[in-house]
Amino acid sequence: MTANPALVRTFANELCPAPFPEEVFVLRRAGVQIELQGVQTRVKGWQARGALYLSNVRLVFVADKPDELGLHAFDFPLVYIRQDKLNQPIFGCNNLAGQVWPAVERGGPSGELPPHEFRVYFKEGGIGTFYPLYYTLAERAKQAFAAAQERSRLAAAGLVDPNPPTYVAGLVSHAFVDPADPSTIYLAERQPVAEADRLPTAPRYTARYAHNYGEDEVYEPMDGQASAPGAPGAPAARNT
Question: Which domains, from first to last, does the chain contain?
Fold first, then answer.
C-alpha cells in the first residue's frame, strides 16, 4: 500500500491513477467508503468517500477530496493483499475487508512493518460486476507471487505478471455485468486516460511514492504542483 500514487485526469474529467507500463484498468466503482488503520493521519487512521479503480496489478482508492494533511489516494498492490473477505450483512451494505502489506521501505511480506487493516464499504448498488473481476485478478496475482517467492526468482525490480493485458481483455469480455452494480467497466482497447499519461517505469513496490510516508505524518501536497511524470512522490493531478 502506498500513499498518494500519481493521479491524472480521465477523458471524463475524473481523477484516476496514472497507469504503469502494461497496466490495464478494468473498472471504476464510485460511491464507496474506505477505512484504513495504521496510516499516517492525525488519528492514525483514515476514513473517506470516493472511488475504487481496479487494474491487472492493483486496487486504488481515490478520495473525493484530500484530507487536511493532503492524503488523497492509496494504492493496494494485488500481490500484497491478504485475508481479504467479502462480507454481505443482512442489515448494512456489502463490504470488502482484509489486510495489505505497506509498499514502502521495510514493508512487504518479508519486511518489518505490519500489514494495514482495511475495509471498503459499497454504499451504492451491488457488487455482482466488481467482485468477480477483483477476486479473479487478486487470486492470480497472489498465487503467482507466492510461487515466485518459493522459487526465489521474484525480480527485485518489479512484479510477477500473472494478469497480462491479453488475459484481462478476455476476462472483461466474458464478465457478467450486474445491472445492480454501478461499476464502469473499461475495455482493454479503450482505457480511461490518454497513452501519454502512462508512467515510464513498472511499479516498484519496495520504493515510496511519497518520500515522507511513515516519517512525519505529512503527505505530499495535492495542490497541483506535480512532479515529473513517473517520479516518486508525484501525487498531484494534471489535465490531459
Answer: 25-189 (2.30.29.30)
